[in-house]
Amino acid sequence: MECCHNPACSIEIPEGARKIVLAGNPNVGKSVFFNAFTGMYVDVSNFPGTTVDISIGKYQNDVVMDTPGVYGVSSFNDEERVARDVILFADVILNVVDAVHLERDLFLTQQIIDMGIPMVVALNMMDEVKRNGLKIDVDKLSKELGVEVIPTTAIKKEGIEEIKAALQRARVGNPIPEVKALMDTVIDKVDTASEALLVVEEDENVLERHGLENVYGKREEIYKLRRNRIDQIISAVVSETNRGASFKTKLGRWMLKPLTGIPILFVALYLTYQAIGVFVAQTVVGVTEEIIMGQYYYDFIMGIMTKLVEETSFIGQLLIGEFGVLTMAPIYLLGLLLPLVVGFYFILSIMEDSGYLPRIAALVDRLLTGLGLNGRAIIPMILGFGCVTMATITTRLLGSKRERFIATMLLGLAIPCSAQLGVIVGLIAPLGGKMVLLYCLTIFTVFVVTGTVLNKIMPGESTDLLIDLPPLRVPVPSNVFRKTYIKSKMFIAEAGPLFVLGAVVVTVLQYTGALEVIMNAFSPITEGFLKLPKETTQTFIMGIIRRDFGAAGLNDLVSQGMLNALQTVIALVVITLFVPCIAAIMVIFKERSWQESALIWIGSFIISFVTGGILAQIIL
Amino acid sequence: MTLDLAVRGQKIEVVKIPDANIRAQAIRLGIYEGAQLICSEKLPAGPIILQNRMQEIAIGRNLAKKISIKAV
User: Fold this and answer.
1) Residue A115 CA from chain centroid, whole number
2) Closest in A369, A464, A469 to B57, CB measured
3) B52 → chain A, closest CA residue
4) Which intervals hold domain FeoB-type G (chain A) (predicted)?
5) DSSP result, A52-72
């Protein structure tokens, strides 16, 4: 097969192995099949040229590849582009469909059939079919599609062996004749039938790879034909036996309606806070950061390194100094951040797999549209309370550049990360309810005003919410763990080097005396405008290095009696709004253009001081 | 009329979706010109939920204002 057009070709495949690709809509249980096929020996990596991860494993002599869940083969976002390239690369497809969602899932099925790739359909979640009062004529469905359809309930291991056997008999299904005719007009311009389909479906990347102009534009016509074909198949094979709304359906509805949805959301957030804010941030981090990394690791590395370098020399400072590459960077990254990131991804995976997340997105959509975002932006916002660096990476899932900018700005500015939040809570709680209210109100106001203003002044339009609300399901633990593991690993791989780089930058600034110069330059603003003692400047600068360092520095000043209650609130407001930590800044520069990043950086800088200043002028 | 004016529980037919990209994404979820669906829920000033059997889709209010529908 001609291969140079597809980045998937850089994936190494053993000689003679078939490439079995799992494809399906989001949350249909693909991973359960993947695990059943491959067992433990799985390689997870970024797909070439993207940040989307794909899993590759071995099954007998063949290679099994998982793809991101998508509603169709096209290029509306990164996940779809990756799924498309892996599907184009496939020898055999195992298409996993959700039996209670055939209207949605068969669109992809028919599209792959039209591509002419041999396939088997796993009709999954069969246990839910009867419960929801549906009946599916599997034989008829198989006949209509022209490929084998195997009923399965993968989480109960039902049907897996049948699927394994059926894969040997995978065959090309019945394409839609009109679509086939359209494909025939371009087949001589490309290498495979699948590519021909994507050319007539106007896929920009596939067109570009073959140096073709988009003059075959028939996407709408084809989608319409496909939709009609599927609706026709479904009315022939699915019958409803009764129509009782189950408890899950009702719960799903309650999660959406504000009257019940908001209390449910608060309960969910409270549980999340207990799990992460209390258990992970205090108990777990107390062990990982202070004991495992802070003592055992620190003593170990110092024991080795002090024999090799002088601690006070430049190299010594760089490696094992206060902000050393071998001391601060790994202690911070592995001791503090890793447990928090794992905790957050764990909760997020549960929310995702249970089907709750899209409902939260719908519930908060109204609030976020005023800020130029839509409900989907709730995901980076929740993650921001864990780690702004991690959340900034997630802004990729937003629909337009405009939304990504607004979300990144709001994250960098007004969302305190968990490391910082812990110290802030410790400082502000003893000051009483009024001060807590003043702090929260100020931050919230800045959040809303910044978002609203950006929405007003930024050119272009944000995308609207259009989201599938999957049925509520109890998440499969192994899936949740797997997702958490993959996402956490990706985070460390991506952010780790930036933390190291950040440590280097700070050590250089400190060693050369530049840090001192910066601090002195800011003192007049701190004293005159913010009405805070000069020493506070140092804590602000420290806040850039590690956000919690800054807050912790304030803790010292307060215990020395240098700040009164109102001054503490002002200092906390400034440090929360102040530029995000150095790793977050680097991620911002990596994700956004340098102009946008500079704007975010300088913008949050100015906003933090102006807000603090205004507050100081009013209340002091 | 437009989708944002649909009433909860009403059965509607989609008449026109203006944006080509939205059309392509919506049709995969079962929303297309000529599709008959039920407006199963309407959040105050927020998204409209459309239902087709077990399939439910949330559509932001602003987008709903651009989609023409008729009652069936």
Assistant:
1) 30
2) A469
3) A103
4) 17-173
5) -EEEEEEETTEEEEE----SS
| DSSP-assigned beta bridge partners for residue B71 | B12
Give the pLDDT confidence score for residue A3 in this predicted structure: 52
Q: Please, what is the angle between helix A401-414 and helix A433-457, to 10°?
A: 160
Domain map (residue ranges) of chain B: 3-71
Residue positions forming the annotated binding site of A for Mg(2+) = 35-36, 38-39
d(C-alpha A522, C-alpha A579), whole Å? 14
Give, in order, the Cα–Cα distances in Å from A252 to each of A139, A244, A359, A365, A375.
32, 14, 8, 16, 17
Over the stretch B16-28, which tens digit does the pLDDT of each residue have? 999 888 999 999 9
Domain that holds residue A145: 7-240
Per-residue model confidence (pLDDT) at position A242:
62
DSSP states of A189-207? GSSSHHHHHHHHTT-HHHH
Residue A69, min C-alpha distance to chain B (Å): 14
C-alpha closest to that of A353 among A345, A341, A362: A345
Domain containing A178 — which CATH number? Answer: 3.40.50.300
CB-based burial, A222-231: b 16+ in 10 Å, e otherwise: bbbbbbebbb
Query: Comparing C-alpha atoms, which of A521, A516, A536 is closest to residue A612?
Result: A536
d(CA A588, CA A389): 8
- Place A231 in a pLDDT band, splitting at 50, 70 and 90: very high
Hey, which bits of A461-527 come out as E strands? 466-469
The closest CB to that of B61, out of A76, A107, A366, belongs to A366
Cβ contacts (< 8 Å) between A72 and chain B: which residues?
A: 28
A123 in any annotated domain: yes
Burial A438-465 (b: 16+ CB within 10 A, else e): bbeebbeebbeebbeebbeebeeebbbb
Distance CA A409, CA A93 (A): 42
B58 → closest Cβ in A107, A223, A467: A467
Please give the Cα distance from A591 to A267 (Å, whole number): 33
Report the pLDDT value the prediction gives residue A2, as an integer from 0 to 100. 45
Gap between the terminal Cα atoms of chain A: 75
What secondary structure does DSSP assign to A278-294, as a single string? IIIIIIIHIIIIIIIII
The fraction of chain A above a pLDDT of 70, given in percent, is 98
The answer as to whether A257 is a domain residue is: no
Collapsed DSSP state (helix, strand, coil) of residue A13: coil
Q: Which of A358, A494, A390 is nearest to A45 (CA)?
A: A494
Q: What is the DSSP string of B10-59?
A: -EEEEEE---HHHHHHHHHTT--TT-EEEEEEE-TTSPEEEEETTEEEEE
Nearest chain B CA: its distance from A424 CA (Å):
34
* Residue A220 forms part of a structural domain: yes
Mutate to test the interface with A, among B23, B54, B67 (most CBs of A within 10 A): B54
pTM given for the model = 0.87
Find the CB nearest A365 among B20, B47, B56.
Answer: B47
How many domains does chain A divide into? 1
Distance from C-alpha of A428 to C-alpha of A432, rounded to nearest angstrom: 7
Q: Containing H/E element for A600? A: helix A594-619
What's the CATH number for B3-71?
A: 2.30.30.90
Residue to substitute from B19, B55, B63, interface A, most A β-carbons within 10 A: B55
Domain for residue A129, yes or no?
A: yes
Q: With CB atoms and an 8 Å threshold, state whether B24 touches A369.
A: no
